[in-house]
């Protein structure tokens, strides 16, 4: 004979529980009372419900983790974990920036920006060739490039345009040049600035430059294969390298020639005791120089030709 469990204590999954006092697996003793069996049942039911809740929580956690594994963020993290040990042991002086590639920016589609005139570089090149053979009778006397830039006129970056095909003004063009130079300065600090941009620049350096320019000025991404950011480097990187070489030469000369240091310090318009000290330094240097060049008592001066 069986004892039905009250409806309020039945499991929520639809199954039915019944107590069989004579066949209970808890003990070999047959003299258990109804109260003892009921207490055992309630304890087992409590454990069952707890295990059921844990199982449900684990299923939800497992499903969530499966979704996270397939997200781009987790994939990027997994890539970082596999790359970081190599970066920490890499002998490259440029550090992590050279070991871990920067994530690429997805290219824009020309079909989404139909008003952009110079999506391809070949289109801009053809346009400039055609414009070179035309003249404007109503145009005034030509102005120098610096004067036009000072007036907010875009001189050489007519290919940088907004989504409506309108070229940026000279002030925006100036900001673009300044930011490009700041990137090149950072590359020079870590020894990664190429001597000639297209010839000596490695793929990672070029991609990093394109990415940084595109993030700061999204207008530069309105093109095919980042040619607009690349064109800025082609036009202005040579003058930047010349400026860098000039600074290096000046530092070397100042290091070897105290008089050059004095002249440079004088150009900064020093005053008071500093100016007097610089003048004395120049006089002492000239005196030592003349003494070294003067012939000794047992030698004669060399003939001058």
Automatic annotation (TrEMBL):
Domain of life of the native organism: Eukaryota
Protein name per Swiss-Prot or TrEMBL: Uncharacterized protein
Annotated region (Disordered), positions in chain: 1-21
Originating organism: Plicaturopsis crispa FD-325 SS-3
């Amino acid at each position: 004979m069986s004892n039905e469990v009250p409806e309020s204590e039945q499991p929520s999954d639809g199954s039915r529980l019944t107590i069989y006092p004579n066949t209970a697996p808890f003990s070999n003793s047959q003299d258990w009372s109804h109260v003892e069996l009921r207490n055992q049942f309630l304890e087992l039911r409590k454990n069952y419900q707890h295990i059921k809740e844990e199982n449900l929580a684990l299923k939800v956690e497992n499903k969530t983790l499966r979704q996270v594994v397939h997200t781009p963020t987790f994939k990027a993290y997994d890539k970082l974990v596999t790359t970081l040990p190599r970066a920490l042991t890499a002998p490259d002086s440029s550090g992590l920036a050279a070991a871990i590639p920067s994530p690429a920016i997805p290219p824009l589609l020309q079909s989404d920006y139909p008003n952009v005139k110079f999506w391809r570089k070949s289109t801009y090149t053809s346009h400039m060739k055609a414009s070179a053979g035309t003249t404007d009778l109503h145009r005034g006397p030509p102005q120098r490039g610096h004067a036009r830039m000072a007036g907010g006129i875009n001189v050489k970056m007519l290919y940088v345009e907004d989504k409506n095909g309108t070229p940026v003004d000279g002030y925006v063009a100036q900001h673009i040049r300044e930011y490009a130079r700041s990137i090149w300065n950072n590359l020079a600090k870590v020894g990664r600035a190429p001597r000639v941009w297209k010839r000596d620049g490695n793929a990672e350096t070029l991609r990093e430059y394109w990415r940084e320019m595109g993030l700061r000025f999204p207008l530069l991404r309105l093109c095919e294969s980042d040619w607009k950011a690349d064109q800025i480097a082609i036009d202005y990187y040579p003058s930047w390298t010349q400026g860098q070489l000039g600074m290096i030469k000046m530092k070397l000369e100042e290091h070897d020639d105290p008089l050059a240091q004095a002249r440079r310090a004088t150009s900064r318009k020093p005053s008071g005791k500093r100016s007097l000290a610089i003048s004395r330094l120049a006089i002492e240097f000239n005196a030592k120089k003349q003494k070294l060049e003067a012939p000794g008592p047992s030698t004669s001066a060399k003939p001058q030709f």
